[in-house]
Amino acid sequence: LPISRLVHPGPPLREGHRFAMTATEAEPREEARHDVEDFLGQAALPEDVLDDLHSEGVSNDLIRSWARQEGKVWDGLGASQLKSRPPQLRTDHREATLRFMDALARLTGLSMTGWHVAALLWDVACQAGLFASASDFEAVDDLPAAAAALVLLLRKDECSSTAPRAADVVNCTSQFARWLQRAVLPFRKRPVHRLAEADKTAAIEAVSSTCPALPEESAEQNFVEVNAADILNQERKLLRTLDWQMHLPSAVTWMQALCKRLDIISGKEFTNSLSWVYQQSLASSHALLMHSPSSCEMQPRKTANGLLCLFLVVARVIPLGIMRPILEVTSSEWEALFLETKLATAGLPTCELSKDRLSCFLRSLLAATGCSAEALQADALAVARAMCSVVSGHRQPQQMPQMQQQAQQLFKGADAAERQERHWQQQQARTHSEI
């Protein structure tokens, strides 16, 4: 099927705007991918549609602004990492932190969209060198306060009058700090507790040489407690690292705006389908965010574009083949990759639109996203591959990170940590009594 003529009846547009390319047009042009200004200008939407977009808060100006802002941030990170890439957090550290931020967001009343922004800003801050000057162990000590500070910053941004103070989240942040130091770094050696008087050192060593060693699980941990000052210090550090840019659009923010724009531009003919697409994309966006951090290669807009296109296929609004990058994968490979994502539960979906309606909808899709056809195809391929990685990870529970296995053991009882602390205190009291 000549898709280029289906989407743009009449004279074909330049190769950057067609849904299919020939072999002679093999090289995708990166500048066409990010040329939002040019593409939105060529959409030539009617005045009443532009007014509706503006009234709904999803105007072309907003898309241009988000695209420039996102490009500035990630291009800057990419340029700085070419010179010297700062040390990054381990995967288990990041996952534990995001889960804590998710729980703290619900506790403090931060919206679901706010949590996605928090996760995005966390990735940006870490890649910008938030913990560049700290060792791996020192970074773990700073993680809880920094995560709490980021959630509180966004909560205050949503509504400062009802946002909790730093002192209000000290207990739960300290609890996460203790858990993180136990579960993520079980082999970290910490300073041995000693009595205050220097002259008792010899006596302690003498008694230690004759007394049996304490069990490993009751050994002194010297856990770092988090206080309000730590959280406030991390707030200032985060703001400096992020250059005070706290309003980056997340993948969910992009997805919400794109669905609104597509609904308006398509004449509200697909409202129910687009509402379903948006709801389904939330869980997938969350899974992708937990699985891998946002990066220059997988920016939020790219994630939103890919999820939108793939779920439109699942909703039977567009055919699967039209989203295939013909120079990247074959038809059979594309179908197998799509099935592996598990987005569709009943085999390959079949488009239910007629040729004329499909042509109109594809034009609306290009205008709503402000992207070229090749960009949408590339984004769909990248997100499909990322979703396959998420699915394959869930299929192999035996490869669960050590942190998660220890967390399950640690939280079998609600008061397991308290029992361990009491046991250690009793052992320490007996040792002091013998001294």
Structural commentary:
This protein is 63% helix and 0% strand. It has 435 residues and is mainly alpha-helical. It starts with a helix and ends with a helix. The model is unreliable at 1-18, 20-34, 186-220 and 397-417 (pLDDT under 50).
Fold topology:
Elements: H1 3-7, H2 30-33, H3 36-43, H4 47-55, H5 60-83, H6 91-108, H7 112-127, H8 136-158, H9 170-183, H10 201-210, H11 228-241, H12 251-265, H13 271-291, H14 300-314, H15 331-340, H16 355-369, H17 373-395, H18 402-410, H19 416-434
Helix pairs in contact: 6-7, 6-8, 7-8, 8-9, 8-11, 12-13, 12-14, 12-16, 13-14, 13-17, 14-17, 15-17
Question: What portion of the residues fall into strands of 2 or more residues?
Answer: under 5%
Q: If helices are DSSP runs of H or I spanning 4 or more residues, what is the number of helices?
A: 19
The string of secondary-structure elements, in order, is: HHHHHHHHHHHHHHHHHHH
What's the β-strand tally?
Answer: 0
Structural class: mainly alpha
Radius of gyration, whole Å: 27 Å
Provide mean pLDDT, rounded: 75
Q: Distance N terminus to C terminus?
A: 88 Å
Describe the global form: globular
Largest sheet: none
Low-pLDDT stretches: 1-18, 20-34, 186-220, 397-417
Q: Name the helicity range.
A: 55-70%
